[in-house]
Amino acid sequence: MELEKNNKNELLELVQDISEMVDIHYIRQKEPKGLGHAIRCAKTFVGNEPFAILLGDDIVYNDEKPCLKQLIECYDEYKTSILGVQTVDKESVSKYGIVDGILIEDRVCKVKGLVEKPSIEEAPSNTAILGRYIVTPKIFDILDNTKPGKGNEIQLTDALLELIKEEAMYAYNFEGKRYDVGDKLGFLEATVEYALRKPEIRDDFIKYLRGMENSIINR
């Protein structure tokens, strides 16, 4: 390997460590038919097991207990589908799928319904689904029969609404800072804040930011 030839042992160790963490399987969605369709493409790979859905537009930072671990623990307790949620400003509800639910314990509510990107007046709450789910395999049979909805795409929210009719569903208000990296400003915020958490570059990056601050002030 080039890293080994060039005596870049720290980088080599980092690459090797990452490669040993997980096995990655790639399934291509051949047509842009929506999130529900993309998930359905993984049916034969997932099989008859509960599985996690992690949307790439959302990154969650929690250095004590990752968001997915929190949801898995909630699933282990309730043995049914779990939605990862957080509260958002009322002005932001129109950007998200919103949960209509009943609080049953700290951070957990039983889901009665879902409303996709409602107006402030239509929103049943300000509890938003934020790109993290654990779903039972029953969702696949529902997706097989879900007709295209908004945008002529197969919508995951439509399938989840049907799933609620067949089994209990819960929403877990996870702990952690969530970044919307599908938004330009959110992407920049995540980049800066994650860089500041890296001890090997933090000091130099702070110097750079201070220089930028002075440059902006002097403009």
From TrEMBL:
Which of UniProt's keywords are assigned here? Nucleotidyltransferase, Transferase
Single GO MF annotation: UTP:glucose-1-phosphate uridylyltransferase activity
Q: What class of enzyme is it?
A: transferase
Q: Which domain of life is it from?
A: Bacteria
Q: Which Pfam families match?
A: NTP_transferase
Question: Can you give the residue ranges of the Nucleotidyl transferase domain?
Answer: 5-194
- InterPro entries attached to this UniProt entry: GalU_uridylyltTrfase_bac/arc, NTP_transferase_dom, Nucleotide-diphossugar_trans
Q: Which reaction does it catalyse?
A: alpha-D-glucose 1-phosphate + UTP + H(+) = UDP-alpha-D-glucose + diphosphate
Give its E.C. classification number.
2.7.7.9
Tell me, what is an example of a GO biological process annotation in this record? Answer: UDP-alpha-D-glucose metabolic process
Entry's family note: Belongs to the UDPGP type 2 family.
Protein name per its UniProtKB record:
UTP--glucose-1-phosphate uridylyltransferase
